[in-house]
Amino acid sequence: MQPSVDAIEAERFRQFIMGVTDYAIYMLSPQGVVITWNAGAQRFKGYHPDEIIGQHFSIFYTDEDRANVRPAKALAVARASGKFEDEGWRVRKDGSRFWANVVIDPIVNPEGELLGFAKVTRDITERRVAAEQLERAREQLFQSQKLEALGKLTGGIAHDFNNLLSVIMNGLELLRMARDPAIVSRSIDTMSRAAQRGAALTQQLLAFARQQPLLLAPHDAAQVIRSFETVLHRALPDAMRLHLRLDDGLPPALLDPTQFESALLNLVVNARDAMDGCGDVHLGLSAVTLADGEVARLPAGRYVRIDVRDGGMGMTPDTMARAIEPFFTTKEVGKGTGLGLSQVYGLMQQCDGALTLASRVGEGSTVSLYFPALAASLPPA
User: Fold this and answer.
1) H-helix or E-strand containing 186?
2) Max alpha carbon distance in the chain (Å)?
3) Which residues form the PAC domain (predicted)?
4) Which residues contact 264 (CB under 8 A, 6 or more apart)?
């Protein structure tokens, strides 16, 4: 009697499976006993067929996995869900371990009776080692970038404080020699501003380290800006102008006035530097209603928005993508800490608000801050 075509095809397929060397492909009984064994399984698990057939497949698991009943759980998951897939350590005949990708499929007859399991195992140790090496390389790069960033921060802070100390020392020298009251007054004003800038720099560092207390409360943002307007004007040289556009009747915003003022000063100073000390800075204040997720990840609702716009050279997409990174700066070494925009971004996160950037090369930049607005109005001052 000649074998049927189906029988011939089945035998060819069996021989093909048995000859595969890149994968361990074998059958298990419903109880998990090995009943077939191919060349691939022998190659990277080390057992000859006569050594392993009849053994329970848990022999390939580590002691820890057997103690946690992982082999039995794997078969239970495969039977219940139609497939089990996992990665983990497996043990060879000689006791060495390899990292394996495992797939177990149940085999059932037309009546739904479980006949056994088909198990495919791949040795992916090299892939895991490569992934670990890549992760270590990334970690080393990250550490290197942190050291580079700290170097930039240290240089920027040292330069800023040195400038402030120079202003104060020069002022003291003028005071020692001056007889004109006007010169004395100007020297005192100059030294006072230098001391204020030193205090602001310290606040930047504290805010960046999250050690500057944040006192959130409802405030009239327009009133806070007007009371701070003189300081903002003084941050600009004579060749620059600050234009305010503050809408009336705005709802109160949830903010910390001190940190809010520091953020405004940072943005105005950034705008000044973007234009090399010549041009106009525009500061706008308005109320907006946003849909859910319309800006960053803000929920739907009312917000008070502050826009600070400059007429500088603008930013490239790469620069915009890194603009809020701590220590990132496009200024020359020693000309800035790179903390300004990062500090403002951190403040907005703490306030449950958002910071957005809009910029095109040659057309300037706009930084927008969104503070949550409250429904109730503030009582008269």
Assistant:
1) helix 181-208
2) 127
3) 84-136
4) 225, 228, 232, 283, 306, 308
**Which one, of 337, 336, 340, 344, lies nearest residue 368 by Cα?**
344
User: The whole model's pTM is what?
Assistant: 0.48
Domain 213-381, what fold? Heat Shock Protein 90 (3.30.565)
Tens-digit pLDDT string for the chain (381 aa): 555 544 455 455 455 455 566 788 889 999 999 998 888 888 888 899 899 999 999 999 999 999 999 999 999 999 999 999 999 999 999 999 999 999 999 999 988 899 999 999 988 888 888 888 888 888 887 777 666 656 656 666 666 666 667 667 777 777 777 777 887 777 777 777 777 767 666 665 665 555 556 778 999 999 999 988 887 887 788 888 999 999 988 999 999 888 888 788 888 888 888 887 788 999 999 999 999 989 988 999 999 999 999 988 888 777 777 666 654 555 544 344 445 577 788 788 888 899 988 888 888 889 999 999 997 665 555
Domain range list for the chain: 5-123, 139-211, 213-381
Does domain 139-211 sit in CATH 1.10.10? Answer: no
